Every structure is written in C-alpha cells, then in structure tokens.
Amino acid sequence: MTRSGGFALATLATVSIACNYATRSLIPIVSHAVCSEGSDTDCTAAELVSDSTSAFFVGDLLAQFTAGPLVRLVAGPWLLALSTASWAISTLFLPSALKSSSPQRHHSLLQGLRGLLCGFGYPSAHAVVATTPHEIRSTVLGLINAAAGIGAMLANFVLPELLSRHSWEVSIHALGVLSLVSAAALMLLSLKSRVGLFTQLKGKQPSTSKNSPGVKQDSVGGDILQWLGEPLIRGIIVWMVVVSIGGQAIGGAFLPTFFIERHGLSVATLGFYTGIPPLAQVIVSLSAGFACDILAAKAGIPARSMQIKLQQLAVGIPMLSLLLLSRLENQPMAACVLVTLWLGCTSFQSAGAMAVLHAVGGSRAGEMFVLGNAFAKLGTLLAASGTRWLLHTFGWEVLLIGLAGAYALSGVLLLPHMHHVERAAAVVAGDKAVQKKKD
Q: What is the mean pLDDT of residues 295-319?
C-alpha cells in the first residue's frame, strides 16, 4: 500500500472510530435529560448509565471472540465500514427503546447489540494500521488512537449545546446520521482504492508455513496460551485493561456523573469540563506519533527508546494526577486540569505500548489487539457494574486511589519488558530458534 493510500484509509478509519466513541458518550451525557422525564423512563441517571454501560460492554466483549477470525477473513476497511453502518442504524432506534413500554429491557438489548457491532471498530482499525508503510506507522497509530478522544470531544462539546436547544432525541439522531455518512465514505474509498472485501492476510501469515510448527493454522485460539506465556505480551494486555477501565468506564461513562456529583456542575455547564480532556487525548496521540516518526527518520533516535520513555509518561503522570484528584471536591476547574493530565497523558501510549504491540505482532497485530481487547472489555464490563457499588460504598476518593494503583501495577508489569520486543515477536511468529537465542 502506498503512503498516500494508507494515510487516506487511516484518516477515514479515524473518523469512523470517532463516531463510534461519540455515540458511546450519548447515554452518559443525555441520561439526566432522559431521566428527568420521569413517567417515560422511571430511572436515575446513575442507574441508566450503569445499566447501559454494562449491556454495551457485554456485547463489546462478545465481539472480541469473533473479531479475531473476522480480521483475518474480511479486509480491515470493509469490516470497519460495514460494522459502522450497522451500529449507526441501531443507534437511530435508541429513542424508541427508551420510550417503549419496557424501556430498561429494550434499551439494554439494543445497547448489547450496539456493543457487539461497535466492538469490531478498533480491531478492524488496527488491521488497517498493520497494512500501512512502516515509515508512517507511528503517525497512523496516533491518528487511530486519537479517534476515541476526537469522538468523546465531539460528544462532550456538541451534545450539551444540542440538549440546551433541542430534545435529547435530536442528539441521538444527529450522531446516528453522521456515523452512516462516515461508513459510506469509507466504503467509497475502499472501492476507489480497489481494496478487496476479503483479506489476503491469511496467505501471508507465518502460521501457514511449514517452518512454523508452533503456530496453529487459521486459529488465534491455538496461539493464546503461547502468547500469554510471554511477559511483554502479558504486560501489554494488563495495560490495555487499565486504560479501558480508566478511560471508558470511569473516565468515560462516569465522567459527567463525577463532575455533577463531586464538583456540583449542572448538565448545561458540562461541555467545557468534559470536553477538554478528550481534546488533550487527541493532541497527545497525534503529536506523539508524528514526533516518533520524524525523530526516527531525521535524527536517528532508536524507536524503542522513544517508545519506552513515552510509556513511562503514560503511566507516571496519570497515576500522580489520580492521587491528587482523589483529594479534590467542589473544585471543578482544578479537577478539570487533573482529569486532563490523567486522560491526556495516558494517550502517550499510542506511540508507546500500542507501537510496541504492532512491532511485536507484525501482520498479526490486529489479532493481538483482539486478544488484549477481550481482556480489556471484560475488565470494563466488571468495572461498569462495580463502579456504582464502589461509589455507593466508598465514594470517589477510594475509587480514584484504586485506579492510580492499577496504573502503578501496569507499569511494573510492562515497562521492564519493553526491551524484549524481538523475543516477543518470535513468540507471535512461532520462531522457536529466535526464542531460544533471545532467552
């Protein structure tokens, strides 16, 4: 694939993932407006967010069990486009579900379906990244990893404004239509670029070679135990779990509730406070990836050294920010600064842990991401249910300190092993000779 073609596909993939994550923020933001209608939806905002997030991540988790085979069968751009179109259509039915005779049941079922379809987003996007030229790989990774922040920023800045002018249904319909447009654009570019519906990846896999007896052909499941035996891969997976719990459950779904309950904001004033952290995520993801590619190409700085240093920032600054954040109450501006440091600096991982994932996985990076994402979604599912209980029992202070501890643990398990990329790559490739040599 050419540099321009790869960059164009990655850009549209970024738009699709951004829409994906914007719609994930819908219920946390509109929940207070939905529940204020009383008779239509007998709920509290916290209950609606918790039930919605739990149902969504059940579907998201289920998607990871089928995403592995799918990214090896269906070309990344097509899998992303088709799944985006499907969850966009299901999003348009959310108001009907919330206004139905059994809103909790119907909404949970629809959220489970949306979670299943949205769950193919990042695995297929990373399959797109794996096909791009190496000289733009960090930049493209920055784009893809910035997509979640772009989507959250879009939702947090735009939705409160729409809610102040229109009914909450308008917000949902607007994002549903925008998502359909992004899916159509990705389909058109795939056709123009002559990207086939089915991938040729399977024929290029080391797993199909007779010289790779340690890898089972056409099966990610046959490799899981072997991959999990490698400390670097385990460290990356633990990091993905922590980022998912911190960024999607606590720092995503429950962030509006945090500012409303802990710092006394109203829904009308949420936009700035919940929109700035995703903006920081976007800036950090894009700048870190671009800087790594430039410094490696122009200054000759080893990519691995930069990846380790950036991952140290992704662990250390958020951990300290969370500890300070746990001490604040009724100080929304100071809290916004610390949340921005927490979520923004976590995005250094795009040129840190995620770049290492692609270096280890090579052409199978999409499958490696699926494995880590399955553990991450399971953790987020448990966190979505457990956060409400933790808040009710212990409050925000204990929750934030616990999350800081999780960051510290992930750093201990990942950072010391980031020097062993070649050994881990040999495990993924099934190269026994290289594994023994590195050991």
A: 89
